[in-house]
Protein 1
Amino acid sequence: MNSHCNGTGKQLVTDFYYNNGFSEPSLETKKTTVQQRKQHETSGKDAEDESRLPALEAAYSSILRGLGEDTDRQGLLRTPLRAAKAMQFLTKGYHEDVYDILNDAIFDEDHDEIVIVKDIEMFSLCEHHLVPFFGRVHIGYLPNKKVVGLSKLARIVEMYSRRLQVQERLTKQIAMAISEALQPAGVAVVIEAAHMCMVMRGVQKMNSRTVTSCMLGVFREDPKTREEFLRLTKTA
Ligand SMILES: [Zn+2]
C-alpha cells in the first residue's frame, strides 16, 4: 500500500493546509485554550484515568469470560486490572497536544537544507482490531526560517501513535502537525510498519509491511526534493 495525502499549488505548506480545510484549528488558536487547560490537565489526566479504571477493569473481566476463561484462576486474578492499565498507557496520546510538546522548542534559523530524522521507532494500535502495529517513521522537512528541536519530532510520533490509529491517518497527522507548527517549505513523512492483525492471522503474510507516505509542499511539487528525501531515508 502506498498512499499520498492530497496537495495543491506551489504555495507554502500552510496555504495548502488552510485551502484544503484539513479540519483542525491553527496552532495559535489552540494556544490560548491549551494554556488555560494545561494546568489542571496534567493532574486531570491521572484523575481521569483513575476514575475510568474500574469500568475498564470490569470490561476486561467480561471479555475474559466471553472467551470462556475462568477469571478466578490464579494467573488471571489481576489480569483485568493490568490489561486496563496497559490499555490506558497505550492510548495516553489522547491526553497530549502538539503545542505542549513543541512549546519552547521552535527556533529561528536560516537553515535551508532538508532536515531528516529517520528510523524513529513507532508502536501503535490498529483501531479496527485493537492489536499492535509497529515499525519505523522517517521525517523530513525543508525549513522556512524555523527549525524544531530534533527530539521533538520523535515526541510528535509518540503522541499520535499512542492512540487507536490507522497507519494512513497517523502518517498524515504527523506531517500536518509539523507543517502547522513550523510552516516549512515542505514536509515528508514515510512510515513502514508491520500490522499484527495481518501477520498473526496468516503465515504467508508474515513478512508483509505496509508503507504509507505524506508529502507536502516542495516534497510534493518537486520530484528532485522528494527523491533526495527518499534516497536519504532508504534503509540499507
Ligand atoms: Zn487491524
Note: Strands lie at 106-108, 115-126, 132-142, 146-148, 164-165, 186-195, 210-217.
Protein 2
Amino acid sequence: MATMTEELTETAEQERFDALIADEQRIEPRDWMPEKYRRTLIRQISQHAHSEIIGMQPEANWITRAPSLKRKSILIAKVQDEAGHGLYLYSAAQTLGITREEMTDALIQGRARYSSIFNYHTPTWADMGAIGWLVDGAAICNQVPLCRASYGPYGRAMVRICKEESFHQRQGFEILYELSHGTPEQKQMAQDAVDRWYWPSLMMFGPSDDASPNSAQSMAWKIKRFSNDELRQRFVGMCVPQFEALGLGCPDPDLRYDEESGQWIMGEIDWAEFEEVLAGRGPANAERLRHRRDAHDDGAWVREAAAAYAQKMQDRRRFAA
Ligand SMILES: [Fe+2]
Ligand SMILES: [Fe+2]
C-alpha cells in the first residue's frame, strides 16, 4: 500500500509531467512519467522499429535484380537506411526500460505487431517505385509530426529518419516517372504497381477516427499531433498532383475534392482486408516472420562472437588498470 508521502510525491510528479506537456517541453528518459505513457510509447516505438526491419524484406527481394548498377546501389542504400531507422528506434525504446532481446523475441514469436503494409508481395520492379512513392510517402505524413513527439528520444530519432524518408520517396517517384514515360509495357507495369499499393498505403494511417479509441489519449500526451483521418487527407492531397505529373491514373474512381468542406472525398477503404492482414492472414505475413526468425537464428554466432569480444576487451582493460 502506498504511504501518504508516496502519494503526495506521485501527485507532485504528475503535476510536473502535465506542466511539461502543456508547455511543449520534452519528457526525457530519467523524468518521472505515468506508467501508461511509458507503456504506450514502448508499444508504439517498438512496433515502429519492427516495421522498419520487416520493411527491408519486400525491397531486399529486388536488390539482385535491379535493372542497372545505379539502381542497385540506390536500392541497397535505401534498404540500409531502413535498418538504421530500426536501430535508432530500438535504442529509443530501450531508454524506456525494455531490452532489445525482449523486443526481438516478441517480434519473432509473433506477439508484436508491425505495419501491415509489409505483408504484401513485390512481383515487379515497378513495386520498388510504388513502395518508395506511396509507402514511404505515407510514412512521411505520419512521421513528420512525430518529430515533435513529447518523448525526447523518439522525437529526435524521427528528425533524422524523416530526412532519409524524403530521399526514399523521391527515388520511388523517379523510378515510376522513368517507367511511366517509357514503353507502353513499362507504363502499364507502373500503373499495375500503383494499383496494388494505393489502397494498402491509405490503410497505413489506421482506422478512421471514430474507430480509433487510443488516439485521443496519444494526442493529449502530445505523442500524436493529428488524427488518422487528418493525416490520410493530407497524404491524398499530396498524391493527386503527383499522379498527374506521373501520367498515371488514381485507382480510386470516387476521389474528388469537396470545395465546401475543404476535404477529399474518397472511395470506401476495404477495412475487411485490413483486418485480415492485421490478424496475420495477409499475402506474406507467414513468409516475413519466417524469414526474420531464420535471420535471427543464422545470426546467433555473430551475437556470440561480439559478446565474447566485448568481454575480452573488458577483461583486458581491467587487467591493464
Ligand atoms: Fe524507414
Ligand atoms: Fe523509407
Note: Residues 52, 82, 85, 161, 165 surround fe (ii) ion (ligand 1) (CB under 6 Å).
Protein 3
Amino acid sequence: MTQNKDTPLSSQIAALTGSVQTQCLDEQARSEALDAARGLLAALESPVERVIQDVVMNSPVLMALRMGVQLGIFTQISQNPECGASSPDIAKKSGASLILVDQVTRLLAATGYIKQDGVQHFKPSPLTMVMADPIMEATTRFCFEVGNLCASKAPEFFRKNNNQFPSSAKDTPFQLGFNTNMEYFEWLGHNPDLAKDFQQWMTLKQKTTLNWVDWFDIQQLIIDGSNSKPEDVLLVDVGGGEGHYLRQFQEKFPETPGRLILQDLPQVVSTIENLPPGIELTPHDFFTPQPVKGARTYFMHWILHDWSDEHCRSILANIVDAMEPGYSRLVIHESILPDMHCHVPSACLSIMMMVQVAAFERSEKQWRDLLASVGLTNVKFYQPPGSGEGIVVAIK
Ligand SMILES: C[S@@+](CC[C@H](N)C(=O)[O-])C[C@H]1O[C@@H](n2cnc3c(N)ncnc32)[C@H](O)[C@@H]1O
C-alpha cells in the first residue's frame, strides 16, 4: 500500500482496513496486528472518551444486547439476510411496544450489532449473525442474569466484608445477589434453565480460533506412547460438561484406539443428549475418588479456576491417586496469568471467578506451587499465541 503524505489519516486507515479484510493472516500475525490496532485506537480516542465508554456506556450496551436476545431482534433480522427486518416487524412478533424496540435497535445499530439500511429498518451485520446463534443467546442470557448481577453486587459485598477476598464459595457476591446460601454449582442444580444456558456458554470457545486440538500437540504429548488396546482409557474429561472437548478430540483423531470418558455431576450428565458413539458418559463427583485408574490422560478445562487452592488439592489428590506413574498425564487447560501485561479476557475471567465462586485464575508460579503441593513436580506449560489461555501438563 503506497500512500502520499498528504493523504488524510482517515483515508490511510480506511485503505489499511480494506487491505486487512482481504488478507488471510495466521493466528500469530493476527494477534500482533490486533494489539497494534488497539494502540492506534488508543492514540486516536481521547482518554476521557474511553473512560466514558467504559463507565457510562457499557451497561446500556450490555442491556441492549440482552434485550436483543429477549425480543428476538438478532434472529429476526438474520432469518432473511436479504430483506432484514423492521422495528414494527420486531414489535409485532415479540409483542413489545414499538418505542421499546426503537430504543434497543438504535443502540444496537450504533454499536454495529445490527446494520441500519433505512428508517426503522435493519439488515444483519457479522455481529448480528454471531448474536443469533443459540449458543450466543444462551451465553448472553447467562452472563447478564448471573455474571452481571454478581459484578454489580460486588462493591456492596466488599464494603460489608472490609474489602477482603471472599473467604468461602458460600459467601460471595453471588450469594448476596441471589439471596441464597447455596454454592454456585449447587444453585445451578436447582435452576435448570440457567444451568442449560451455562453449559451452552461453556461450548462457546469452540467458535473462536482458540481450539486446543488445533494448537496443542496432542499427537506427540498424548497419543504417541499411549497403550493401544481398545479397552485402555485414552482420555477422561473430568467435569467435562456436555463433552465438547471430547467431541473435538474424537473428530480430530477418529482412528486413535482407546476409550473416551466424560464425567460430570449427575444433574449435568442426565441432561446430555446426542453424545456420539464412542464417548462414555459417567456421573462422577470429583471430590470423591477417581474411579478410572491408569488412564493416559486426565483432562480438565475450566475446572480448577472455579475452586480455592484447598478445594483444588482435594480434586487433584483424587486424580493423582488414579494416575499411573510415568504414564498418565494430567492435562489442565486454563489461563496461565503472566506476572505483567495480562490479557483482558484472563483478567476478566479471574474477577468473574472471584465474585461467583471465591476463586481466581493462576500464574505459572501458582500452578507450580499448587501441583507441587499434591506431589506433581514434572510440570510443563504450553500456550498458543496471543492468549492468556494455556495448557499445563503434569506427570506423576
Ligand atoms: C466451568 S464448567 C467447565 C465445563 C467443561 N469442562 C468445559 O470447559 O466446558 C465446570 C464444570 O464442573 C462441573 N462440576 C462442578 N462441580 C463438580 C463436582 N463436584 N464434580 C464433578 N463436576 C463438577 C460443572 O457441572 C461444570 O460442568
Note: The first helix runs from residue 9 to 21.
